[in-house]
Amino acid sequence: MAKRPRTPTTSTDASPARAPRKPGRPTSAKPPRPRKAKAEAAAEPAQPATPDQPQPQPQPEPTDAFTFAADQRQMLETLSMNLAKAAMTAQGAIAEAALSQADRPAALSPDPFHVAPAMTSVMTSLASRPEKLFAAQADLFSRYMELWSSTTRQALGEVMSPAPQDKRFKDAAWTENPMFDVMRRSYLVTSDWMNGLIAGVEDVDPRTKRRAEFFTKLLTDAFSPANFLASNPVALKALVESNGESLVRGMQNFAADLERGAGKLKISQADNGQFEVGRNVATAPGQVVWRDELFELIQFDAATDQQRAIPLLIFPPWINKFYIMDLQPGNSLIRWLSAQGFTVFVCSWVNPDRDKADFGFDDYLEKGIYRAIAKVREQTGSDQVNTVGYCIGGTLMGAALGHMAARGDTSVASTTFFAAQHDFEMAGDLLLFTDEHWLSEVEAQMDAAGGVLPGAAMAETFNALRANDLIWSFFVSNYLMGKDPPAFDLLFWNADQTRMPKRLHMDYLRQMYGRNALARGEFTIGGEQVDLSKVKVPLYFQASREDHIAPMGSVYRSARLFGGPVTFTLAGSGHIAGVINAPSANKYQHWTNPALPASLAEWQDGAVEHQGSWWNHWAEWLHEKSGDWTAARDPAKGPLSPIEPAPGSYVKVKS
After folding, report:
1. Fewer CB within 10 Å, N- or C-terminus of the chain?
2. Would you say residue 621 has pLDDT above 60?
């Protein structure tokens, strides 16, 4: 449609009509300043500035402003494109995951951990005590009043006391920015209050209460502001500085982990491409001298001219692979033991598949413990062996000692237990995963997998026990920050899980965690009802102060079940670092006490603290139990012919 021509307007007063405004001219009524011609301005000499006359400041060239604006536009365009790319990557990955899971049967229960009944019991208890609820509400109100009061004082310049240490908020951005600082402190107030409220509930079954506490902690950990992009200043800073590339990389990591988990998110904890078993982890020299359907027996090379006469045989947990004791030369327990003059053997368990679904405790006793001991004796010519049982391998070894005591078998001279439990009354948070409701879910999961528990299932359980360290820290780093997983040998090993036979695993959970049968003298293995008090061989128990899988109190109760001489040592750190702590690292500490009083608290009261690793203390004890010195043994020259170099083949089988 053509524009209508504008008709001239006439003035209603006597003033002359104003000429139409030309395009591009100023709209202000102020008359323009007269400007000199360029030639005239160039001809004029520069006038010196007087004291009262300010020196004119140089103005940026118009092109500078245009360049800056263009750079900003380019940055915004790049950021927008990267945000869109990240969103599409995430959406595509989630869609692929949904399709891959579409034909799989749904879980038996929407609440496999039986949390709802536990929370109902806790809330019923709270509701029956309204005065406790009122007190809790008043406490929360008081905490928030203090939060806002301290925030106001901080805004007025008052220096506040340092915040409590929390690895999730260690970056200075959490405290330097007032908004994120308040967000952080508000979250900590609320989560601490909520967890304290559940912990203070009375008249509820202890296991029910512990389940409610555990999952409340999981919930509050999940809702940390550090776990969300919009409320994490460190992730936002990385997003801005990289023009969105950090989020693109993060969503690519997210998609790769979904694909690796076949539709389930399998968070990468380590750069698996940096490690290879037998190349840069598990490199201690030795030979596989025996192999059958259940284990490979590895004899490691001597590192001294002479060795102790009684060899040392290590039974690691079948939940994990043995090379936690041989990650790197500098922290290898196996290399260190060889350097102390011990002949070291390791039972490297097979990574079981469906054909081992019916293997139980009897099989692992007869075909594992007894056969490995017999082969070590055959290879070395020694009448006796010293044994080590690590974690669940120690539980089996303890039961085996009870079986030997009942049969009069004296082939074991002494046994050492690393983080091993035999009394499960105080077994920690893993007890939460052993009620019958959850066991039925696990059993169905193993049936669906052909009679074995997939390695990822146990990994998920152990990760949940330390969610902030093993789940959320990697979620933030890998996905929100877009960083690659670290090249960390310990985390590589942690992710290298094994499967477990259905019969063995269900018996272990029901008999040990469920009934505490071994401690009560009600556990039968190999046709014998085990009584640990009849075990008289010398024992060395190691526990770790911060162990969340085999708590120190649980290990101490286990040590008191046996009838022979027992040495108990407490190490610093946790389930892994407390055990694998080479003396050369000079880390942590350990406590010793030759007595074994009724309680751990009494033992600690009389214990002496020592700096550094407990290995030297154990080695002194072990030397006394290992006989005279003899010529070093060569694995290639024993009665058992070498099959292949260490670390063998079984340890390389992936789940």
Report:
1. N
2. yes
